[in-house]
Amino acid sequence: MKKLLLPVDDSQGARASVQTCIRLFGSRPAVSVVLLHVLQPGGKSLLHDRISDPELGTLKRQLEASGKMQELEQAALNIFDTHKKILQDNRLTRIKTLTRFGHVADEIIKAATETEADLIILGSSRTLLQKLLMGDVVREVSADAKVPVLIAR
Length: 153
Hints:
- This protein is α/β, with parallel strands linked by helices.
- The protein is 50% helix and 20% strand.
- The chain contains six helices and five strands.
- It has a five-stranded parallel beta sheet, with helices on both faces.
- α4 packs parallel to α6 (137-144).
């Protein structure tokens, strides 16, 4: 494994994926890590994964016009800083960051292909009810990704 994709946010699942990465690859500092954050206006809501692509485009333009997109991007930088520090403190220093806007599972799969990741490490922390109501990103990515997916809990 040379390049790992770690989708991150401020959840327990993301922290679990970072810790799993450290446990498995901390002794291999030549490994490159790509931290991915998918911007989600309104947080992890029921509606985000149900918005059509044209509606997402409109929403993105409105967020950019209102200045809200800058706030989301700053929040992403804060999330990256938190996870980067933990990785760097554990000898994983080849870290890049990537921010996307869109449907989370789709953006993770696209980023894995574009970055030529060898492995996706995804955290899972949603309850069964949350998965039923909001969808299951882990399931979608595991089913559709062209590279192996490791699920961290």
